[in-house]
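Protein fold
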Amino acid sequence: MPRKKTRPSIIDVAAHAGVSAQTVSRVANDNPNVHALTRQRVLASMKELGYRPNSAARNLKSGRFRSIGFVTFNLTNFGNDRALDGVAQAAEAAGCTTTLLPIADATPSGVAGAFGRLEEQAVDGIILVMSSEVGPLDDLTMAAGLPLVVIDSDTRLPYTLAGTDQEQGARIALQHLLDLGHRDIVHVAGPDLSYPAHNRADVYRRLQAEGQVTARPVLFGDWSAASAVEIGHRILQSDPLPTAVFAANDQMALGVMKAIHDRGLRIPEDISVIGFDDTEGAATFWPALTTVHQHLDEVGRLATAELLALIDGEPDTGKKHLVPTRLVVRDSTGPVPHR
């Protein structure tokens, strides 16, 4: 049987380059106290022998593992998935790996357990997508003992946060409808405990309080198209019919649109629909969906940059980064219908 090829050691590189093992270690750790010609010779030997420095040993020595944890309650959610993609890309660019830990138990104890597991897996810090209420985080961070950045949470929390400017996004969506002449607008909101859903619904309620939008109750879905189909049928039973619907995400907008089609009504000639997210399929809805685009990759990048700064020793002053949205006008919104 052929003998298995062994991995070259630091001693092998030292012998090949004609230097001490300590010099090889200095080169591997990018220590500046090595003559340039010697460094080149050692690097050439490393390449020729196929030697790779033991990063785990270096990490133990430095106390850094070049790894961050990403905790989320629902990875299938469009925003969470896109935020993870932004975090992973930014982490890779910084030479770090990302450890994903989705959890089903959205409670303080569930999050604390996730933090503990990540600490055991040797991460340097944690990004938590806390898009729904789970309770106070004080005890959680103390238990974990790791730097923390939160995505899409309550901006009143005393932690560094990165997220979408949900209120600004809801304002431009509703202002678009107001500019088209709509006043009788129904809002299909996300779950009541969701921070993004709550912030978007607050803008709608404020416009009602100011008399700019007709007083109608907020209708709550669960972010799914299926939940919004039933809500859409309820909306269409009202008399008079609203002239527009603002859905808190694109999937619920799709459900409302199905209900409208089922009723034999036209979009936007009979009723306008606007969503939120600008998912990849929004432009292919029937008709193409007017919606609000979230820059979730930028949210992920900012969260990662802030976490790496905290890991490097920057004090946590509770910075808040709210990324503005932009309106994407397509075919599902139009002027108020003449009835």
